[in-house]
Structures are given as structure tokens and as C-alpha cells.
């Protein structure tokens, strides 16, 4: 079980002479708690097979602070460019990611 509590925001940035904002600043911060069975190894087998194999994954932190920050810009009325960062900070682990997305509406 993973539960997250926190705050998010989205602020449109515009000049005083503009009606609509073409640039948005987004972000959030929260606290994540993991509980229950968080084993890193799962022993699996295919149907009708007695042979098992193990799948191992990265550990999940018991408690972590999560943060995200992004910038979204409308390049034209139909094209949007988004840049983002998200991170998870635990006592024994760190997880960082960045993304870029270009969207076209048609």
C-alpha cells in the first residue's frame, strides 16, 4: 500500500496587457508512506510449469518526500511544450526524473 498526501499548484503567468496566460508554472510537494509487503523479489512461474524464476526490483522507501516542478508554454494555439522534473527523497534512496513533452492538437 502506498499513500501520498501533499499540495499541488498551477499558476498562470501573464503580462498585465494579456487576457490569457500562455505560460504556466506547476509544482507540488508531498509525503509518501509505503506499508505492507514491499519485498524486492517475486518468485513466479508460467501456467502449467513447475519451473520458477525470480524477478527483482528496486526497493521502495518506507517514508519519502516527493516533489515535482514543471513549466508549460503554449507556442501556438495548437502546440504546447512542457518541461518537468519529479523527485522522491527517502532516507536511503533517491529517485529523479525529467521529461519533455510537445503536444499538437488537431
Structure description:
The chain has 106 residues and is mainly beta. Helices cover 0% and strands 67% of the residues. It has no helices and 7 strands. The protein has strands at 2-13, 23-34, 41-45, 52-56, 63-76, 79-90, 94-104. The strands form 2 sheets. The protein has a 5-stranded antiparallel sheet, with no helix packed on it. The protein has a two-stranded antiparallel sheet with strand order 3-4. A hairpin with a 3-residue loop joins strand 6 (79-90) and strand 7 (94-104).
List keywords for this structure.
elongated, five-stranded antiparallel β-sheet, 7 strands
In short:
By secondary structure, the chain is an all-beta fold.
Percentage of β-strand residues:
over 45%
Mean pLDDT: 91
Rg, alpha carbons: 20 Å
Indicate the low-confidence ranges by residue numbers. Answer: none
Query: What string, H for helix and E for strand, traces the elements in order?
Result: EEEEEEE
Number of helices: 0
Sequence-ordered SSE layout with sheet pairings:
Blueprint: E1 2-13, E2 23-34, E3 41-45, E4 52-56, E5 63-76, E6 79-90, E7 94-104
Antiparallel strand pairs: 1-2, 2-5, 3-4, 5-6, 6-7
Amino acid at each position: 500500500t502506498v499513500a501520498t498526501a501533499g499540495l499541488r499548484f498551477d499558476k498562470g503567468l501573464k503580462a498585465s496587457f494579456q487576457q490569457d496566460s500562455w505560460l504556466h508554472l506547476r509544482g507540488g510537494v508531498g509525503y509518501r508512506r509505503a506499508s505492507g509487503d514491499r519485498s524486492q523479489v517475486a518468485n513466479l512461474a508460467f501456467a502449467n510449469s513447475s519451473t520458477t524464476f525470480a524477478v527483482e526490483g528496486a526497493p521502495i522507501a518506507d517514508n519519502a518526500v516527493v516533489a515535482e516542478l514543471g513549466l508549460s508554454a503554449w507556442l501556438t494555439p495548437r502546440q504546447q511544450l512542457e518541461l518537468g522534473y519529479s523527485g522522491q527523497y527517502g532516507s536511503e534512496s533517491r529517485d529523479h526524473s525529467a521529461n519533455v513533452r510537445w503536444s499538437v492538437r488537431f
